[in-house]
Amino acid sequence: MVILHGPPSPKPAPPNLAQPKPAPPNLAPSELAPANLAASELYSPGVLFSWPELQAMASDGVLTQLYQRGYLPPGTRPTPQLRARAASVLIGPAVRQRVVAGRMTAAWIYGCAAEPDRLAMLVDANRRISSLRSTRGCTFHEVRLGPFDVVSLGGLMVSSPLRTAVDVALHVESGRAVPALRALLGKPELGLRLRLLMHAVEATPGMPYRKAALAKLEQVRAGPAP
């Protein structure tokens, strides 16, 4: 009796761990329940949903609009990080690396002012500002920024709380500046003190608006009108 031995059976190939997982089904807004969104923080137009789809979901109550093209699941508490992310949606990645959200935009990001119609962006004097002026929905201000004037929030550079308060006092009209300054000073987590803010304004070199800024801070010191 002759037993013939052929070549050994090939071993099964190991699974391709790098193989991408199948994309999730594209659900219509009416099929997407709020529970499906609980794991995410901010929705903006992209691969998953278009802007009309996000608007439709907001109309159905599945999402709530945070700012412009940024949406949140209902009940999500807006934070500075989420507001900064919503603002960054309007700015291209190349521009985002060259600008700092400041003034009343930064005050809004910190939760101390109404949402801005246009984003106020600071550009360091060492960078060229002319190439940015075509960016829609933004106003640009050429400034000098120190090493402690900028923080990173939600993928966007934002002026620090102290720099924000100084700029609001110096450059924003009293009717909007004073409430924003009170709100900024009223948030302990921002670490601001009125005396520190007044010293910072007084130390600002060559600034013609210093006297008016100090007058706004005196209004803040006096408290809200009865």
What distinguishing features does this structure have?
226 residues, alpha+beta, 3-stranded mixed beta sheet, 8 helices, 7 strands, globular
Account of the protein in words:
- The strands form three sheets. A three-stranded mixed β-sheet has the order 3-4-5. A two-stranded antiparallel ribbon has the order 1-2.
- The termini are far apart.
- Helix 5 (about 160-170) runs antiparallel to helix 6.
- The protein is built from eight helices and seven strands; from the N terminus they run αββααβαββββαααα.
- By secondary structure, the chain is α+β, with helices and mostly antiparallel strands.
Overview in brief:
The chain has 226 residues and is an alpha+beta fold. The chain has helices spanning 51-59, 80-88, 93-96, 103-109, 161-171, 174-185, 194-202, 210-222; strands at residues 64-67, 70-72, 100-101, 119-124, 138-143, 150-153, 156-159. A hairpin with a 2-residue loop joins strand 1 and strand 2 (70-72).
The coarse silhouette is globular
Strand content: 5-15%
**Fraction of helical residues:** 25-40%
* SSE run: HEEHHEHEEEEHHHH
Arithmetic mean of pLDDT = 83
Q: If helices are DSSP runs of H or I spanning 4 or more residues, what is the number of helices?
A: 8
Distance between the termini: 112 Å
Secondary structure: number of strands: 7
**Structural Rg:** 25 Å
Strands of the widest sheet, in order across it, are 3-4-5
Largest sheet: 3 strands, mixed
What structural class do helix, strand and pairing data support?
alpha+beta
